[in-house]
Amino acid sequence: MQRKPRLLIIEDEPAIRAGLIDVFVYHGYAVESAADGADGLARAKRGNFDLILLDVMLPSVDGFTICGELRRSDPDLPIMMLTAKTNDDDIIHGLALGADDYVGKPFSVAQLVLRVQAVLRRARPALLNDAQLRLLGGISIDTRNLNASIHGIDTHFTRREMEVLQYLGANAERPVSREELLHKVWGYGREMEIETRTVDIHIAKLRRKIETDPKLPQCLLTVRGGGYRLLLTDA
Question: What is the full per-residue pLDDT of the chain (235 aa) written as tens digits?
């Protein structure tokens, strides 16, 4: 018998927590839950879960702190954040800590299930064979160790940021659309109408790391009507 994927839901609102437990159990998941941050963090660290569904606003320990702690202990653990905060700074903060995606409240339960399934399909992927990604301007990124020295500054990338760079690098001859990135990197089906700024925020984060002037990008370009293109060097 195939092992059920193990899901931990950390959510303090009883009605939402109970509803999510019922939905994911119905869809074949082995589900555990926690109602506050401290208990959720402790369970997550000892539970060997396949994915953490994590609310931002929690008693005792907030979701941002939990995300950062879990990411340090397991760089590949899939984490999806549930948030009533739709301010870009809050979303960027969560993604910068290593969350794979965020889902804004109120949310469609059916779409949430599909997005969790997609993240699990893409979980712990193998990196591309090339250990170095060389960008225009002499920047060399170590794709296996998720870091680089950029303009004399040691720079670290999250796993998802590196996946975006790798996919763009593998298709550097053409622009890659936002929808294609959602499909190929995040694993969302093309038929899903995803309302998320995850791709845009990841692009903005990457530009702040690799560009001398993020407002005038030279490596990671926006192609009007086409998406994004990463410029590589042959050197």
Answer: 467 889 999 999 999 999 999 999 999 999 999 999 999 999 999 888 999 999 999 999 999 999 999 988 887 789 999 887 666 677 777 887 888 888 888 888 888 888 888 888 776 554 444 567 888 777 888 887 888 888 778 888 888 888 899 899 889 889 999 989 988 888 777 666 666 778 888 999 899 999 989 999 999 999 998 899 999 876 4
d(CA 127, CA 135): 18
Whole-structure pTM value:
0.68
DSSP label of 176? B
Using DSSP bridges, classify how beta strands 139-142 and 132-135 pair: parallel, antiparallel or unpaired.
Answer: antiparallel
3-state secondary structure of 90: helix
Give domain 6-121's CATH architecture. 3-Layer(aba) Sandwich (3.40)
Residue ranges per structural domain of the chain: 6-121, 132-230
